[in-house]
Amino acid sequence: MKVNIVVLVMLCFFGCAKKDKSPYVQQQDIQLEQPRVKASNTIIDSSVVITSELRMKGVEIFYTSDGSEPSKSSEAYKSALVVSEEGRYKFKAFHPDWKPSTVSELRVYQKGITPLSIDWKTKAHSTYPGLGDSTLVNHQKAELNFRDQQWVGFDTIVKANVHFAKDTYIKSITVGYLVDTKSWIFPPEVVSVIINKTDTVQAKTPKPENKEVLALDDVRILIEKNVESLSVMISNTKELPEWHAGKGLKAWLFMDEWIFN
What we know:
Shape: globular
Number of strands: 15
CATH topology of the largest domain: Jelly Rolls
Number of helices: 2
Number of domains: 2
């Protein structure tokens, strides 16, 4: 009789324990999808429109425009954003019964000055010529797919002389590039700019540490001078890292736009 009572108590205990694992607890372990983010254009002439959505009842989307991580104390997304200033927009979805989403990111850039001409010392690879010599200054950004015709691909150091009207003030140059490690496309190692054949400024970019990175990125170099010419030299990654299938070999460099502001 005592054995039967012990068995009943144990069955009741484990039965109650299973019931405690409610659907709510299970939902808390599941992460929301990223919110979808679109822009009418990522180069701002006068203004662009940014929209975000995640069609699920009870979802709230919050965003930031300075590159910081969104939280519930950030600005709530209620309707389309009309943007006239460049920024790094991040969106994140929240729901009371689910884990918050990962961040969706979108960068928008101020339309820059169009150079008088570019004298290319290095030609793009014949397989990835973009839309010709003016692709990198046509005020168009590319999509993530490296086959987008707004990408120009190089497998060597890039050199070009950029010419402007006399005494054109240039605050900065922004070089947009693609990171697609599975396709052997890596960030530039160094970007060097010689201003008016005298002063040199340069910048390095961070190396990807993950084996599968797919991202749009850029590097900005301050000029802050009146210029007539800029000599630009951009070095591709000369040796792929140890973790990569092509370790020791040089990487591809893909760029979509040089923006002179």
